[in-house]
Amino acid sequence: MGKVTLDYSKAAGFISEEEIGYISKLVEDAKEQLVAKNGAGNDFLGWIDLPVDYDKEEFARIKEAAKKIQSDSEVLIVIGIGGSYLGARAAIEFLRHGFYNNISKEERKTPEIYYAGNSISGAYLEGLLDVVGDRDFSVNIISKSGTTTEPAIAFRIFKKKLEEKYGKEEAAKRIYATTDKAKGALKNLATEEGYETFVVPDDVGGRFSVLTAVGLLPIAVSGADLDQLMAGAAEGRKLALEQKFEENDSLQYAAIRNILLRKGKSIEVLANYEPSLHYVSEWWKQLYGESEGKDQKGLFPASVDLTTDLHSMGQFIQDGARIMFETVLNIEKSRGNVVIEEEAVDLDGLNYLAGKDMDFVNKSAMNGTILAHTDGNVPNLMVKVPEQNEFYLGELFYFFEFAVGISGYLLGVNPFNQPGVESYKKNMFALLGKPGYEAQREELLKRL
Ligand SMILES: O=P(O)(O)OC[C@H]1O[C@H](O)[C@H](O)[C@@H](O)[C@@H]1O
């Protein structure tokens, strides 16, 4: 069986063996600290053992709840933001049909899935309420803290719609709350109203929570195989924990990106060649951005969807300020393919491709781009994923999670907190007139 691997051969011209040898010792130290749980943020390391040590009773309950939602709902609304949103969406788009919500119900066999509470746009919510219409639906409200404004507002609106449609008692049976085991407004509301609840463990931060109920319930509703996802993550864990630096792709990824950062490559661009990976990049950006971007340090995580963005951002990557390196996510065996056929008259000049399939064209574009970008002084790394299935996604999630822990320690930051995200919230609450923010409000209004 294959595995998720890192190939940095195309970046070899930018990095020497000595540099790798030097940093490998630091990486091994960081790993020791991470696994011994004696480094910064060590009260948020529950994700390390999650693939092998999770709540089996809750896991079974997640599957049961998913079955109920599949049987009584045409639509599931998943409400959450950041780590309480991106993992589920990344997995569902990676694993399920590329046009999941648009294919026929008969073919899909599972509810349509939409996301809310990931912005404060009234126009978006109004549109989504129209999409649900009079159809049967359920809601999975996800918030670790239980107090985040965006999902709280969206939940209030969908809760009302449910209660109007089904009455309070039946509505409560269609609401699934994923939150802290004991505290927060959402937990209190769930207890008060009798919702089924799932737990975000205390020691698993939001951006590391995709393999808890946070990600697992929506992923199960979409029809994906949770057992395979967990098995893949367990394999990823084994590889990350047990292999020495020379064979350990996750450790090597942390090492190479830090070498490049120290050479002034302060942006990492994650590139994919499959639209269904767009949200994997979004999940990755939160994981890396919130983990590393602090104390005035860090690599800025950016992403591009290719070849799409070669027609927009491609110019900058090839030729603009040399401040970045690129990491290509390569799905080795595409999950779908279309053959290009010969035409009698070659008006579009494409007959030279007759008999070739789209994946051959896509991979040729990828390989050509990697060489062009390398020639343009953009070091290229590649993360290879053998196939687009649950097992390898689980492995990929773990690969990136483990690497960011190591990478954060190499940088000398606490990769498991996110103090910076509070600043905008304080200002927003003050401007909204939330009780307790009166003094700040006066100050801010003067500045606007
Ligand atoms: O799950 P919640 O508590 O609602 O948090 C949702 C997200 O928003 C916060 O502001 C943090 O920046 C994220 O790390 C978190 O994933």
From TrEMBL:
PANTHER family named in the record: GLUCOSE-6-PHOSPHATE ISOMERASE
Isomerase as UniProt keyword: yes
A UniProt-annotated Pfam family: PGI
Matching PROSITE patterns: P_GLUCOSE_ISOMERASE_1, P_GLUCOSE_ISOMERASE_2, P_GLUCOSE_ISOMERASE_3
Species for this entry: Roseburia zhanii
The enzyme's E.C. designation: 5.3.1.9
Family stated for the protein in its record: Belongs to the GPI family.
Gene (UniProt): pgi
Subcellular location: Cytoplasm
Keywords associated with the record: Cytoplasm, Gluconeogenesis, Glycolysis, Isomerase
Function of the molecule: Catalyzes the reversible isomerization of glucose-6-phosphate to fructose-6-phosphate.
Active-site feature positions: 290 (proton donor), 425
InterPro entries tied to this protein: G6P_Isomerase (IPR001672), Phosphoglucose_isomerase_CS (IPR018189), SIS_dom_sf (IPR046348), SIS_PGI_1 (IPR035476), SIS_PGI_2 (IPR035482)
Molecular function (Gene Ontology), one example: monosaccharide binding
Protein's name in the database: Glucose-6-phosphate isomerase
Pathway annotation: Carbohydrate biosynthesis; gluconeogenesis; Carbohydrate degradation; glycolysis; D-glyceraldehyde 3-phosphate and glycerone phosphate from D-glucose: step 2/4
GO biological process terms on file: gluconeogenesis; glucose 6-phosphate metabolic process; glycolytic process
A GO CC annotation given for this chain: cytosol
First-tier enzyme category under EC: isomerase
